[in-house]
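Give me the fold.
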Amino acid sequence: MASQQSIADFLLDQLSGAGPVSARKMFGEYCIYLAGKPVGFLCDDQFFLKPTALGRSLIPEPVEGFPYPGAKPHLLITPDQWDEREWLCQVVRATANNLPEPKSPKPRKPRI
């Protein structure tokens, strides 16, 4: 089941205090970015945050889930936690700060 656009818009609005946040639609679901760095996924209208030690420490009772089949476990941020805007922004910022910078794509080899 694909995530609803209205849910993605609400989540992005809640995260707007964290910094430049955006979402990119992929296969009916969304990848959530903070300052161009992927921090989580919105799948089946559920927010899955990439796991980091600092992010996990800020969540009172961390719950893990899988955003899609074959994925590594992520931290599930339940919809009732989305209403705590300040806390949500803090957790997402901490996660982004603890993730490595995204790798730049390799240049394509010219065709012969």
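The first strand starts at residue 21 and ends at 26.
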